Amino acid sequence: MPEKFYSVDEANALVPKLKPLLERIRATQLALATDKTVAAVKAKAAHNGGGLPGRHLSELQRTLERDMGQLQEWGIVLRDPSSGLIDFHHRREGDTVFLCWKLGETRVEWWHPVHTGIAGRKRL
Q: Does residue 20 surpass a pLDDT of 60?
């Protein structure tokens, strides 16, 4: 899939949709990592589907796959699910850079060169 390049306005227009999506990704990953049903499913025989805990685990995995697929469809790079850190491809003075946003920020106000990551964030 070719990279989608976002203007600052286009990226900011997605922020209201990104907040609930990234919060759900974070919560789902946490549930998959800590939920007692994961341990219950692992304790069951590998071929019996795990019963109710297995269905719950499958539902969590489908939710995560759907949400991650949405980000991929939009051409957004998820850097850190726990903090909700994402990057949008952007052109700045002819160079490819990333617009950088994370949960808790009200707008996309940062960018960084592709090789620096969040440590190289600069205000727009």
A: yes
